[in-house]
């Protein structure tokens, strides 16, 4: 909890979306990609709804912050998901059905500085 007079903790929900889905041979339209990010974000918020960071994030809907990054391909997205799992970083890997295609990772809300190191390691965050 922030001390009296201190700035409140900045919570951010990071999403990592596959860039290759917008390119040939997939060529998914922008709306389909946005839908994948929305599905993943909603699933992560629901899955981690009892975490104090998620509750705090949802208290001020007008102040929610999301950062959307891109992974070059499915392999990179799955490697990131595996690393996050090993490091106990709460997230959801969204799989589009019925094809079972990994499309997006959504983190639960985290303090801004807490997960950047994992994203930098995958060169998703400059």
From TrEMBL:
**Its catalytic activity?**
an N-acyl-L-alpha-aminoacyl-tRNA + H2O = an N-acyl-L-amino acid + a tRNA + H(+)
Q: EC class of this enzyme?
A: hydrolase
Under which EC number(s) is this enzyme classified?
A: 3.1.1.29
For this UniProt record, the keywords arranged alphabetically read as follows:
Hydrolase
Kindly list the GO molecular function terms attached to this UniProt entry.
peptidyl-tRNA hydrolase activity
Signal peptide stretch? none
Instruction: Name the PANTHER family on file.
Output: PEPTIDYL-TRNA HYDROLASE PTRHD1-RELATED
Query: What is the name listed in the Swiss-Prot or TrEMBL entry for this protein?
Result: peptidyl-tRNA hydrolase
């Amino acid at each position: 909890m922030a001390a009296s007079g201190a700035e409140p903790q900045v919570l951010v929900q990071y999403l990592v979306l596959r860039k290759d889905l917008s390119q040939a041979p997939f060529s998914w339209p922008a709306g389909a990609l946005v839908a994948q990010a929305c599905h993943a974000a909603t699933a992560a918020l629901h899955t981690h709804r009892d975490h104090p960071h998620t509750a705090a994030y949802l208290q001020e809907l007008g102040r929610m912050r999301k950062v959307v990054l891109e992974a070059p391909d499915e392999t990179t997205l799955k490697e990131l998901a595996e690393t996050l799992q090993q490091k106990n970083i709460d997230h959801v890997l969204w799989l589009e059905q019925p094809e079972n295609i990994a499309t997006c990772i959504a983190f639960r809300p985290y303090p801004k500085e807490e997960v950047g190191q994992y994203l930098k390691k995958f060169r998703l965050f400059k």
